[in-house]
C-alpha cells in the first residue's frame, strides 16, 4: 500500500479510544494517502491494533492537555510532501479521492481548504447541518506547526512565514459525523474546552482565534452575552481577510438575536452584508429575524435576496439549505402567514425541488392544495413538478396513502387509477369494503383502516356509519386501556418479570394516536363545509391549515 | 375690485335643500357666481336672494364646462370654488387676511375638506384640495367629473406656486341622507359611463366609477372597477393611495380579508405613512383572530405622524390615534393583559374623551384589575369632564358595563334625570340594588314626560317594582299616564297573578304573552327573580325566556336545569338548543356536545356557529387522545406529538376567538362562583 518512492501525502491523526470510527476513516483514504501517522494519547481499546492493521506508524504520546503539541509530534515524523489532517470520526467522500490526489500534484499551492460536512447523525445519509471549509492539507515544512491548545490551527504559521502563500479552496468533501448529538453536545466536553481555552487565553490574551473559539463554546452553552464579549474581542484583533471573519459576524448576529436585541441584530446584519455581500447565510438570518418579529414584507424581500444569491461561495462556512430549500420554505411560511396560499404553494414546490428529502415539504403542499379546494389538481402538480419522485413506486404508494390519510380521497384514487401496473393497495381495499358492509365492525380491524374509513364515510354522506364505527372503536380502546392498566397493576403486585408491559403499551399508544388522528380528519371535514361568504371564513381557513399533518410512521 | 377680492363660484342643479347653508357661509364675498345647469326647484331664486350673479346654461355631461364658464364672468382677484353641499367653515374675513399676507408668486392654495359621513362626530374623513386660486385667463378646469384646475396652474407656474393652508370647508354631501335624496349617484354613473366609452382604460375614470358604485351600495361592482383602476393607475398618481384605501374598505365590507392582506403587505411598504392603510390591515387581521399581528398594524397606524402626513391622503378622523388605541386595548383585553388594555384605552381617550368604546373599555379593564367602582367613576368624571346630559349619559353607559349600580344611583340627585335614557338607567340600578321605593317615586314623577317607547319600558320596570314591594295588585297611580290598551294588558296580568296557579293549561292572547315574556326578561335583568318565578308559574310559556335570560346573565346552572326540563317537553327553540350545547362544551362533555350540535346541523347545515362548535369538540377529543398517546411514549419531550398538540391547541384558540359562544355576563358568573 505505501509507496516505496518518496511519499506524497502523509495522513496525520491524533486518537484516543476511537475503535468505533477509526476503521471507516482509514478505509476511506486507501489508495489516496501514502503514509499514515497516528499519534495515540492513551487508548485502552483496540484503536492501536486497527491503526496498525492499515499500516499506520503509531506513536504513543502522553496527553498534555494540548492538542497542538500532540499534532506536532505526528507532523514532525511525516515524510510526505503534504500533510493531510483528519479526525477519527471523519471520512473522505468516495467521489473526492481523485480530486485530493490531483491537489497533491499542484506544488504552486501552500495548502488546501477541504469542505467539512458536519452531519447531525452517524450515517452519511443523515442531514448536513453545516459545511465548513477548513485548511486540512498543507505543505510539509518544518515551520508549519500547529498552535493552540484546542481548535489547533495551522493557517497562522503558514501565513506568518509566507504572507503571500497561495491557498486553494478545493471541493474535496470530508464527512464529519455526530456533530450535533453525539460528540459535541456533551456539556462536559464543552466545559473542558472552556477550561482549556481559558488557559490558552491567559497565555496569549490577544489571540483572536482563541477568542473566536471561546465564543463558539459559550454559544453552545447558551451563554450568549459571554460569547458576544469574546466575539467583539476577536473582531477587534483580527486582520482583514481572516478566514473566520465572516463567521464572527454571523455569530454576533446569532448572539444578539438570542439576547433579544432585535435592532442590534438587524444592524449587525447590515454591517455584515456591507462587508460580505455574497454571504447568503446573513441574508437568510436577517430574513428569519424579520419573520420572527412579524415584519413579513421585509422578511420576504430579504429572503428573496438569499434565493437570488444561492448557496454561499465555497470559502464561507455555510449551513445547507440557506439560499435554497430552507429559504424557500421560510418564504412559503411567510406567504401562508400573509394568506397568500398560491404563492406559498409555489415556494414549497421550489423548496421540495431543492431537497433530497422532500416528503415533509411535499406533504405541506398537498395539504394546502386540499385547503384551497384544489384537490383535483394534485395528480397534475405531482406529475409536472416531481415526475421522478412519483415514478418511484414506493414513493408513489406512500403519497397515495398519505393523501387518503389527509382526507384527499379523490386525489388518492386518481393517482391509483393512473398506475401503469395496477396493484391494489390492501389497506385501501379493506377500508372501502368496511364502509360498504352492513355490519361494519369487526373487533380486530387495524387502526389504520379505521382512520381511513371513518373520515371517508363522514365526508361522503354516511355520517351515521362513521360515528357508529368511531363509537365502537373508542369503546374497544377504552377496554384495552383498562386491561393494560390491570396488567401493569398485577405485574407490580406479583413482581412477575416475565410479563413485559412494553408490548401492550406500544399498541395502545398507536391506537390512541390513530383515534386522535381520526378526530382531526373529522375536524377538517366539518370545517371544509363552511362557506366562503360566512363571517369568519378566513379564520377557519387558517385553522384548517394549522391542523397537524398525518404522520406515516 | 380690490387686490385681494374673493369671488365664490358654485355650480347648481336642484340644490334648494343645501344651497342656503352654502351661500350663508360666503355671503360677504365680493362676488358670487352661480352657474345653474337646469334646476327645476327654487335653486335659482335662492341664489338670487343672496345676491349671486346667476348664469343658466345647458347641462352637457361635463363639469368643467360650467366651471370654465364661471371663470369667464369672474371679476375678482381670487376665486374660491365651492359645491352647493359644502360650507366655508373658516370665516371669510380670515381668509381675506391670509390672502393679504401671501407671496405674489403663490397662484393657488389648498384647503382642508372635512367630509361628514355619519351623525357621529368622529365619523369624518378629511383631505386637502385645491380650491382657492388667482383669476387668470390661462387657467382652466379639466375633466368631465372631479374637474380640476391644478394641472393648468402647474403647467404655467410649477408646483411651488401652490401652497397649503388650514382654511376649512365642511362637506355634507356624503351624509347618507343627502347621498340618496339626490340623484347625484345616478348622474355621476351616466357621466362616467359615457366617458369610459371613449377612454375605457382611464384609471381615474375607473376609480371614480368604483366610488360611484360604492355610493350606490353596489360593492361587488365597485370592487371590480377599483381593481381595474389599480392595475392601470401609475405609481406616482396621488389618488393611488386613496384608491387602495377605498378598495380595502370594500374588501373589508365584503369580508375578503385575503386579497386585502395580500394587497396591503406590498402597498404598505410604499405608503408606510398612511395610517388608514395600517388601520384597515389591523381590522382585517383582528377579524381573523391574528391578534398579535393586528396589534402590530394598529401600532404602526399610531406611529404615522400627522404633521408629516401626505396632505393628499384621504384620512379618517382618529385613524392614527384614538381608533387604533381603542382596538389595541380590546386586543389586550382578549389576551388578558389588563394593564396594557387600560393604558391603551386611556391613550385613546386623551385624543377623544367622548369615544364610548374606549370609555367602556377602560371601565371594564379597571374593573378586572379590581379597582373599586367608586374610583373608576371618579376617573370617568375626570376623563369626560361632563358638561351636557349627553356627556353624563356616556359615563352611565360605561358604568353599566360593570354593573356599578351604586355609582349610577347617585345620578338621581342631579337635574339631568329628566333625560329619559338616564332615568331608565338610574331606575334599573335602583331596582337592582333593592331601592324600590325611590324607583317608584321617580317613575311616578316622570311618567307623564315620557314618549310611548320609553313609557313601554318604564311601565314594565315599574310594574315589577310594585309587585316586588307589594304582592297585591298594581296601584292606581300606575295606570294614570298609560294608554288604554296598555292598561288593559296590565290589568289582565295583574288579575291572573292574584289567583293561585294551577296545572290546567290556559290559552292566553298573544299580546298578553308578549307582555309577560318581556316582563320575565326584565325581572331577571333587574335581579327580581321572585317576580319572574311568580310570572312563569301562571304563564309557563315564558319559561324559555326565563331560562335563556338567566343563561346570558351567567346563572348557567339554573338555566341548564330548566332548559333540560323544557327539552323533555320539546319546547326549546334553536337559540336555547345552542345554549344547552354550549353548556355541554363548557363542562368539558365534548362527545355529547359534538353529538348535540351535529343534530342542530341537520336543520342548519351551513351555520358557521354550529360548525365551529362541532369542530371545537372534535379538536378537544383529538387533544385528549393525542395526550394519552404522548403519555405512552418513551421520550415525551422530543416526541413529534408535542408539536401536534401545540397545533391542536392553537387551532382551538383561533376558533374560540371567532366569538361563536354566546357572550355571558361575567360579573354575575364570578359572583356565582364566589358564593360556592
TrEMBL record, chain A:
Q: Would I find Electron transport among this entry's keywords? A: no
Tell me the keywords, alphabetical order: Transferase
Q: Does the keyword Transcription apply?
A: no
Spans traversing the lipid bilayer = none
Ranges for domain Glycosyltransferase 2-like come to 10-131
SUPFAM superfamilies in alphabetical order = Nucleotide-diphospho-sugar transferases, TPR-like
Query: Which molecular function term from Gene Ontology is one that the record holds?
Result: transferase activity
Give the domain of life. Bacteria
Q: Name one Pfam family in it.
A: Glycos_transf_2
Gene3D superfamilies tied to this protein: Spore Coat Polysaccharide Biosynthesis Protein SpsA, Chain A, Tetratricopeptide repeat domain
> Which InterPro entries does this chain map to?
Glyco_trans_2-like, Nucleotide-diphossugar_trans, TPR-like_helical_dom_sf, TPR_rpt
**UniProt-listed PANTHER family:** GLYCOSYLTRANSFERASE, POLY-BETA-1,6-N-ACETYL-D-GLUCOSAMINE SYNTHASE
What's this protein's name? Glycosyl transferase family 2
From TrEMBL, chain B:
Q: Which SMART domains match?
A: TPR
Give the Gene3D superfamilies listed for this entry.
Spore Coat Polysaccharide Biosynthesis Protein SpsA, Chain A, Tetratricopeptide repeat domain
Where does the record place the Glycosyltransferase 2-like domain?
8-89
Q: Which UniProt keywords apply?
A: TPR repeat
- What's the protein name? Glycosyltransferase involved in cell wall bisynthesis
Extent of the TPR repeats: 574-607
**Any matching Pfam family:** Glycos_transf_2
